[in-house]
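Record 1 of the preview.
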Amino acid sequence: MADNGGGTSISITALDGIVNVNSLFTLAAFAGLAWTPSDGATTLSSPECAAGDRVESDLVFFHVLAFACFLFSSLVALCLKQAIRTVSRHGHASSVRINRLGLRGGILACATGSVFACLFLMLALINVVQVRLGRISCGGAALGAVLPLVILVPSGLLIYAGIVLYTFSHTH
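->
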């Protein structure tokens, strides 16, 4: 199917947005990996509410998963952008053929990677809260810090996923 260039520029803009946002979150995940929970950081909780080794282990585990998913999403987006530019350079504007199914699949893979990365980063942040403020099961400040996180992040991801799916169902 021939592309008039408009859809291609929109795709490149969308891919640029994915790469830019993922870069910020990748930096956050990397910074989280650099922070070691047991490096003498003070815990603001009572000893009976202190997070254990399992929470600290999960914190690192979720940061690594978030980092990997953000990198996956960004690398796929960069490859798609390069493929679009390469195809566009080698053809005339009226005869450029973009594999729409491949492009849509790639954008869907980017969006899926970003969603999973955000979920893993949220789980890592929940564990950061538990290390610093105590276990969530003890209530108090830890619960107060985690509640907005578990309400707002999934809500934003549902909106994001809904818009991506709507766009896919209403474009040719």
